[in-house]
Write a structure and sequence with these properties.
This protein is of the alpha+beta class. The protein folds into 2 domains: 2-102, Alpha-Beta Plaits, CATH 3.30.70; 110-228, Alpha-Beta Plaits, CATH 3.30.70. It is built from 5 helices and 11 strands; from the N terminus they run βαββαβαβαββββαββ. The protein has helices at residues 18-31, 75-85, 105-108, 130-138, 190-200, and strands at residues 2-9, 48-50, 59-68, 90-98, 109-120, 144-149, 152-157, 162-170, 173-181, 205-219, 222-225. Strands 1, 2, 3, 4, 5, 8, 9, 10 and 11 form a 9-stranded mixed beta sheet that branches. It has a two-stranded antiparallel sheet with strand order 6-7. Helix 1 (18-31) crosses helix 2.
Length: 229
């Protein structure tokens, strides 16, 4: 029996790594007494899959994961039992039983929404022109960033992966709202978009706080909340 859940990772556990997060959920499911299915072999592992890895330091309101149980259990009961055993900062907000065959969550994932709060080195002095500056930034045919992967730094083209971007300035902060391509067909990281914008605006930043607010997949070619795809 396969079940899909949507869960949140909040501020108090923002710096829990993805590997640690996987262990947290495995342990919570076992402590909840749920009949989790495991892989075969010398090192059996619980059958839990996540839509994507949440970067360390990032929070999220809409992550998705799927798990396989050996017996059918009421979805509401599963959610209640898992939430009772999850550490503070994690919470499951929805769960449903899956029927039939379907692609993996990573293959289904297509877009993600983010809110990014950028702390600036000084007050942004052109707030009235910010919308025009963002539109000019997006009007570029190419936006290239330096992306680190496996101890190597490579140039990465991200313009096509930025589906929308809005910004507002408040004192020493810029607040960015963006929708980016995600999943196995391409993945643009919000910190890369934010830094590219800061460079374009010639505005030095100090820190960034990133929260994923929604994940999407495509259902009948329509963008749909990933949990429901």
């Amino acid at each position: 029996m396969k079940y899909r859940m949507e869960f949140a990772k909040r501020d108090s556990v923002a710096f829990v790594s993805h590997l640690e997060l996987m262990k947290v959920f495995s342990q919570a499911i076992r402590r909840a007494g749920l009949p989790i299915a495991c892989t075969e072999g010398f090192n059996p592992r619980p059958k839990i899959n996540f839509s994507s890895a949440i970067a360390t330091g990032m929070t999220s309101l809409a992550e998705c994961a799927e798990m396989e149980l050996t017996l059918e259990v009421d979805a509401d009961q599963i959610m209640e039992r898992i939430n009772e055993t999850l550490p503070s900062g994690f919470s499951v907000g929805a769960i449903r039983q899956m029927e039939g065959k379907h692609k993996s969550l990573m293959a289904l994932l297509s877009h993600s929404d983010y809110q990014v709060r950028v702390r600036l080195a000084e007050t942004y002095g052109k707030a009235a022109d910010l919308d025009e500056a963002v539109n000019s930034f997006l009007a570029q045919d190419s936006i290239v960033v330096l992306a680190k992967r496996k101890n190597k730094v490579k140039e990465k083209e991200i313009r096509e992966g930025i589906l929308s971007l809005e910004a507002r300035a408040e004192g020493d902060f810029l607040y960015l709202t963006m929708q980016l391509v995600a999943g196995s067909n391409g993945n643009v990281r919000p910190e890369h978009v934010a830094q590219a914008l800061m460079d374009y605006l010639s505005t030095p930043s100090l820190t960034m706080r990133i929260e994923k607010t929604m994940t999407y997949g495509l259902k009948d070619d329509e963008k749909t909340r990933l949990f429901l795809v």
